[in-house]
Amino acid sequence: MENRQQILDELKEISPFLAGIGTSTPYSLPGGYFESLPQAIMDRIGTEELLQSASANVYQAPAGLF
Amino acid sequence: VDHDDANDVMQNVFIKVWKALENFREDSQLYTWLYRIATNEALTFLEQQKKRSTVSLSDDEDGLSNRVKADTNFDANRLEWKLQVAIQQLPEKQRVVFNLRYYDEMPYQEMSRVLDTSEGALKASYHHAAKKIEEFLKNN
Questions:
Q1: Which pLDDT value is given to residue B31?
Q2: How would you class B84 by CB atoms within 10 Å of its CB: exposed for 0-12, middle for 13-18, buried for 19 or more?
Q3: Mutation test of the interface with chain A: which of B1, B29, B105, choosing the one with the most A Cβ atoms within 10 A?
């Protein structure tokens, strides 16, 4: 990443007021969010793959039908 | 945009990454590629929300600001929240550029690859965005 100071100096030139505010965001995450995220994503991928394979097989004609 | 929305977008990003990993070209940095997918996914989500919304397109920025204000932790007296409201007033491109530069400290060269925009145009967008935010914060 570019040097934080360079970005701050750039902002000071554009808006000294804004440069003095600080860059923390007020948003927060539920506890343990990132710990459970990988499993949640893998579960969704598993479900999607299962649905895909199921829908691919549903309309398969029995062998020798035609 | 609440936590559930952000969570959906986040999961969609990583599912797309997982599915497209074998097509990842190593001539671009993984980080640039991830940002590109995440930015597109976030903008697509907002576009879908806009289409579903009954408010007119001109109210879009106000709609986003109202969503920030609807956050259960919103505190109108805290400068960090005021800044979030100000950012939501920006046009989409300026909003993205400002967030990538101000919060993520992204160099213009990288941002240029993520957003397919010239560095000069990105610098101009950032300049306009910062000026608009300053004006908004001083008047509100």
A1: 87
A2: buried
A3: B105
What the block records as the tokens of B60 is: 């879009």
Q: In 3D, which of B97, B99, B134, B102 has the Cα closest to residue B117?
A: B97
Per the confidence metrics, is the pTM higher than 0.90?
no
Chain B interface includes A18 (CB < 8 A): yes
The token pair at A32 is 């343990």
Distance CA B39, CA B100 (A): 10
Cβ atoms B125, B136 nearer than 8 A: no
Model ipTM value: 0.79
Q: Is A26 within 8 Å of B75 when comparing Cβ atoms?
A: yes
Answer for the pair A45, B15: CB distance below 8 angstroms, yes or no.
Answer: yes
